[in-house]
Write a structure and sequence with these properties.
alpha/beta; 3 domains; 7-stranded mixed beta sheet; two-stranded antiparallel sheet; rod-shaped
């Protein structure tokens, strides 16, 4: 049994006239008649009583009509669903992000994407950069937002914004009396750093910033970016962090701009070979937003 058999049958059953049914399905009347006979032979029942003057559904035909309509409706919905999925309007999008992205426009961007594609399930998971790279390579997430740079040849990346980095000092620190600090002023201070295992790109970037200023930082403790503020507040050392972390408003720390204005970047990363239509639509969503999209917020 083929779908065309059902479509021809429904047309004849609703029109109760082979000529009108043939015109409706755009097929010659003899062909429609042959297909109806083939359908009746296949199921072993007469679906119509017909003579030269009229066509009438049998009891079996009336019962078959209801099921045939339902089946064709399901098929039509399946086709519509398949087209929506191909256009990226259905499915799921798994996003990894570093905590600092909460203080950018990403939440609003995701909300707007959800509104536009209400049948796409969007799942967000906080992950450090190293975890995001592993998850992308294993296809456990579709796109990530990390502190770059990311050195992985199978991943595509796009820098979504850059922002200055600032020094963080414990409250009451002697350098706190300065409104702006030069990096060299921190040369003799103990440092707390983001652990390299959590994000080698960001870790190595800050090392390079310090070395360009003429010193290698004395790292006494490591943690996540948000851990660093608590470590600084405890007096463990000083840190260099993205400006957007000021939005966390951690008690016991002082933020001071750096004269050299070293920059950090937030990168969006995804698999180079990713074929997900939903991911394609999300990337296009961010492209349209451009500079109005993800930006650091400083409180």
């Amino acid at each position: 049994m083929e779908l065309r058999h059902l479509r021809y049958f429904v047309a004849v059953a609703e029109e109760l006239h082979f000529g009108r049914a043939s015109a409706r399905v755009h097929v010659a009347q003899p062909a429609v008649s042959r297909q109806i006979r083939a359908l009746e032979e296949e199921i072993g029942l007469s679906l119509f009583e017909r003579d030269r003057r009229r066509v009438v559904l049998t009891a079996a035909g009336a019962a078959f009509l209801e099921e045939a309509r339902s089946l064709l409706q399901h098929v039509d919905r399946a086709v519509i669903t398949a087209h929506r999925a191909a256009r990226g309007e259905l499915g799921s999008l798994r996003i990894g992000y570093v905590p600092a992205v909460v203080h950018t426009g990403l939440p609003e961007i995701v909300r707007a994407f959800r509104k536009r594609f209400s049948r796409v399930e969007v799942r967000l998971q906080e992950m450090n950069p190293a975890m995001q790279v592993d998850a992308l390579l294993a296809e456990r997430i579709d796109v990530g937002f990390v502190r770059g740079p990311i050195d992985e040849p199978t991943l595509a990346s796009k820098t979504v914004f850059k922002e200055p980095m600032v020094a963080v000092l414990p409250s009451g620190h002697q350098l706190g009396s300065h409104k702006i600090l030069g990096l060299a002023m921190l040369a003799k201070e103990p440092f707390v750093f983001q652990a390299r295992s959590r994000g080698p790109g960001a870790h190595d970037h800050i090392l390079a910033i310090c070395r360009r200023a003429g010193f290698s930082p004395q790292i006494v403790q490591e943690g996540s970016y948000t851990d660093l503020l608590s470590l600084v507040a405890s007096g463990a050392g000083v840190a260099i962090v993205p400006t957007s972390l000021r939005a966390i408003r951690r008690a016991g720390v002082l933020f001071r701009p750096l004269r050299e204005r070293p920059m950090t970047q937030l990168d969006m990363v995804w698999r180079e070979d990713a074929a997900s239509p939903v991911l394609r639509e999300f990337l296009e969503h961010l492209r349209r937003l451009g500079a109005r999209g993800i930006r650091p917020r400083v409180g």
